[in-house]
## 1
Amino acid sequence: MENAIRTKSLNTRSWLVIYTRTRWEKKVDELLKQKGIISFCPLRIVKNQWADRKKIVEFPLFTSYVFVNVNLREELAVRQTNGVLNFIYYMGKPAIIRDNEIDKIKNVLIENPDPEVMSLKDLTIGDRVAIKNGIL
């Protein structure tokens, strides 16, 4: 009975967060997919204007972070992937992200392909902000 419980936990998939080398998010995402590991690197689409041209560029929504949907057996393969520094930990264990949170991120990107992530710690009540687009 104990082996059955242990086997189930070895095969149970969870969304975890990995920390990558700087500017390696898309490369790590691709390397993980080549290994058959389910990964998700949310990208935002930015239209850049240079003096001579305009170009649409994809940037990671979360700098240095990639999400992976793995079981215990696949964690070692993730750690051994070039560009992966470590898992993000919470209370001594790899931080688990709920499926619905990943779905929310995907839905936000569908509705608004160029969101901007900001730290709210620098904002206080009464600060003026500019809303670029959206329902507000």
## 2
Amino acid sequence: MPSAERLEAFIAAVESGAHAKAIENYYTEDATMRENQAEPRRGRATLVAHEQAVLERTESVVSTCVRPVLVNGDHVVIRWVFDFRFKGGKTMRMEELAWQRWAGDRIAEEEFFYDPAQAKPA
């Protein structure tokens, strides 16, 4: 179960734009991440590489945690809003729920739930 301080530090890291670094610092080595019940990506190194690939396509990402954050033991649900500005000028706003299972002070499993129609840049 994450402490309140550890959870707030994770949220602050994501909101600061340190997305890949947050994965390095807050996920277990064998963590999994999946989107809308798709096949999960496995392993922290894979998760970091995927995040870096997404970030390389952007000029900026503004990440906002919409509170309250829901915590029940090892399970955490965070509502995120991401405002992307891609290279070339296209923009995209994505709102999602991130369901996490923590193992101690690190995220072991995460699944994102969002409307795929949002994933089309404007």
## 3
Amino acid sequence: FNCVGAERLEEDVFEIPFARDAAAPGEAARAAIAAAAALAKANPERMVCVLGHAGAQEGGAQTGLQLAARRARAVAEALGRLGVERDRIRAEARRAAFSRGGVAVPQARSVTVVVLP
């Protein structure tokens, strides 16, 4: 399966916040990760996309993409530890999103977990 278009879905989406430059989810992320895992476990036929993001202020393009990948991998591993089968999870890095004027959007330092329909 692939995650193309997953960021446009609005239902069964969980935002996992990250501190600036952090690759591991903090305490504030636990509830959202647990909720995503519970939904995925209750719906074993649905796949899970884990989309990592990094802000423009978190290094250059390549550094930011690597940080986004580490964030996505950390959340995917956390979902696996909570009982979601690894073959149902796809972790991907996404480039930082910007609004008009080049300002990074708030979700830039996060991971988006989408339980696909």
## 4
Amino acid sequence: MAVIGYLGKSALEGVIFEVSDQTVRTLSNWKWSGSVRYAVHQRHKYHALTEYTGMDPDKITFDMELRVELGVKPLDDIVKLWTYHREGIALALTVGHKGYGKYRWNITSYSVEIKHTDNEGDPTAATVSVTLQEYLRT
């Protein structure tokens, strides 16, 4: 088994990104973005002045394809992400050998597209889209 990374409180729990002959759980459509803030000060008869006022928290978005035939129980990962989101838990994000962000991340939004279910209504294939926002220590 090759652990690619994780999103969670630690490498021992959370959503583990991995590839093996039995399990595939990876990220796709991964985007990392950042922005800064500027104030614009209007002046009479002169050009407006801009002033750099600070940085906004970075954001990361990604999709995960969760399928039973890839060795994943989609509902287990969906419930973990739902819990992290609802409880506002700050999570570490590690991909490869690199931890991303200056500290942790919060799930600000997610969406789940359930593509198939079994005969009891449990998802067997789902695409989960997650938006993270950087959470900094004060």
